[in-house]
């Protein structure tokens, strides 16, 4: 078995807990009016993104994972249920989820919930960007997020890509799956832009080189 196919079941937990410790102090001190700022997620404010994040994680914690639970319609219902909550309650639920969901995800041998942890980290980037904070889609948890992106990109059957990330040590990152008769795509740019491409976030004001694949082929959330 290729080493890149060996799952680290506790990687999602480490990412979620690290993000909790980085994000929650920012959220707790942010003025309430800022939560009405729009994010990169069409139609959603920062408050709604965080409500979705907390709801998704607590569903995992409480084993409420009925069919279609993470589809757009279900996500919208979860957000609507929290529209009247005080922002403090939204943040409390999110903090609980970031703390408790990781061990539950680790117990799932199929690894199907690992991508939820990555999505939570990406949504934290959406909120940071809306707030005008540095570190959107990168920051201190990047080295935990990139291995999860590698796993998720293979599960979502994106083509092989070799990424040369500016300012990052450790050599290129390998994402996606090898395709017989097709050379790996190449990316040159910063890590935040790579995350934007794979998650379908706006690429305005970014600079990068991508050859051998299109941005649409690389999307992990469709």
From TrEMBL:
UniProt keyword list: Isomerase
Signal sequence extent: none
MF (Gene Ontology): isomerase activity
NCBIfam families, sorted: maleylpyruvate isomerase family mycothiol-dependent enzyme
Protein name: Maleylpyruvate isomerase family mycothiol-dependent enzyme
Organism: Streptomyces litmocidini
